[in-house]
Amino acid sequence: MPKIAYFGSDKFSIRCLTHLLPKYADAVTVVARTAKLSGRGLRQYKEPLIVEYASQAGLPVVRADERADFDLLRGQFDICVAVSFGLLIPASFLESLKYPGLNVHPSLLPAFSGPAPMQRALLSHQKYTGVSLQTLDKKRFDRGRILAQERQEIAEAETLDSLCEKLADSGGKLLRNSLDTGLYEPQNYPSFVSQESYSYAAKIKPAEKHIDWNNYTTEHIMRRQNTLGPLFANVQAVSKENQPILKRVYLPNLQPATTRQDRQQNSSAA
């Protein structure tokens, strides 16, 4: 059984990891980034979610942020698995492994390559997306050799959480199967060619939570809320200096038929 360095951080990486347990529990070491200051005033340290899960599951945890951290890990593992880790793993570490590294990416690569594949698939109202198991490229994100993919339909009322769970389960099964069958060994690589075209899933910006009342339909607003969480609108207000300003107001739990277009349509119909 290969010694596995599992690089992860969030809910997606945790759920993928559950599919390796308990069979590979003795072989897995979780590699996480160091806790960062967060919150108002940056006064509290916030651990990656996977650290708490690893502790509960009895898995060892080591840290890796800088090149020196990765250098210390060289020679300790046979293979690494990166799932939503957030850093490009150095080539020097990958070259120290017995087998090429693996990555689970929540899209049908090369479609929605980049840091926000699930969010971009939802916001662009795709009918389907999927998950890919690929090797780790030594220089670039999401440019490894694709070993397997599984397609997932996107429901009309899909949320980021529900899609994350579906894709993580699919990705976890692909990962488990690769370890069970030896698919991770180069001599066993399949002749797989993705049928998707390249697109880039850019990081979500805070401004994308702004509601464009004039152009968004109810469908657009509900999908955006289900993907990004509470949205905001700019309303007219007056500053302390008695000057007109736009004030950001968050509007949680919006319900259907709340857009200007829909209100106008409903009014005309009446």
Automatic annotation (TrEMBL):
Pfam families: Formyl_trans_N (PF00551)
Domain of life: Eukaryota
InterPro entries: Formyl_transf_N, Formyl_transf_N_sf, Met-tRNA-FMT_N
Domain (Formyl transferase N-terminal): residue spans on this chain: 25-176
Organism classification: Eukaryota, Fungi, Dikarya, Ascomycota, Saccharomycotina
Protein name: methionyl-tRNA formyltransferase
Enzyme Commission number: 2.1.2.9
